[in-house]
Write a structure and sequence with these properties.
Layout: H1 3-34, E1 36-40, E2 47-51, H2 55-61, H3 64-97, H4 103-115, H5 118-129, H6 137-140, H7 151-176, H8 180-188, H9 193-204, H10 206-221, H11 225-230, H12 243-251, H13 256-287
Antiparallel strand pairs: 1-2
Helix pairs in contact: 1-13, 2-13, 3-7, 3-10, 4-7, 5-7, 10-13, 12-13
GO cellular component, one term: plasma membrane
Family: Belongs to the binding-protein-dependent transport system permease family.
Main location: membrane
Amino acid sequence: MRKPVKALLFFILPFGLLFTAFYLVPIGYAIKQSLYKVERTGTFGPAREVFGGLEQYQRVLENGPFWESIGRVLLFGVVQVPIMLGLALVLALLLDSGLVKGRRFFRLAFFVPYAVPGVVAAIMWGFLYSPNLSPFTTVTSNVDLLSADLVLWAMANVVTWVYVGYNMLIIYSALLAVPTEVYEAARIDGAGQFRTAWSIKIPLVMPAIVLTTVFSIIGTLQLLAEPQVFRTFSSAVSSTYTPNLTVYSTSSIPNFNLAAAFSVVLALATCALSFAFLKMTQRRGGEQ
């Protein structure tokens, strides 16, 4: 074996072992669990796990609350993701424009909410939304942000607050990689700040925007911490409010086989949506 090949294997092996142990093996185990079911001999007989084929998947397809939860997070994503990424793009452009003084401070200030754990952020905002606990009683006493009609968008505000800075940093890093000669050529041609941002900066950072959108699609379908915390503040958030909350609640029964089937279907839906978005952006890029 050649030395370069040995060196390559030496560097790839640690990643390959960890990837297999913490990614491929759990996926394989979840698929295996989803193909089994629990049976009992009599009413109080001992439980035993037997092969059930696709029976758990049939139960998933017939589970109305699960599909309602998927529709709910899709609506969440259609509204929340564009707003979040739009804010992230605007903040990144402002930091890169040179109009903002103290860019280091604002870059850190925008990113700080991402450093707050999601559960802590949800608890903090839950208190702010609660009519009896919030310091903004003028607002919360007149607008019930934890009602069935508004709680989804209250959670969307929490997710936006946490992840705007994270996505801003990815887009801002892409802007820093743009050669300064491109901006100098635009200035020579008489392009102002807005024209440079619209015609040069945004098209050049489009790959970063696509990347953050894919991350956001995956994160939207995996929404768990916020609804789980908000269940303690609002009766409108049920145990099947989001797909991941459905998986968590089902595994707590416990019904690990059905929970595994929910997880596999959710993973397939996430892959399908992400792949469809990537193909759509590639097709538009090819047409341009």
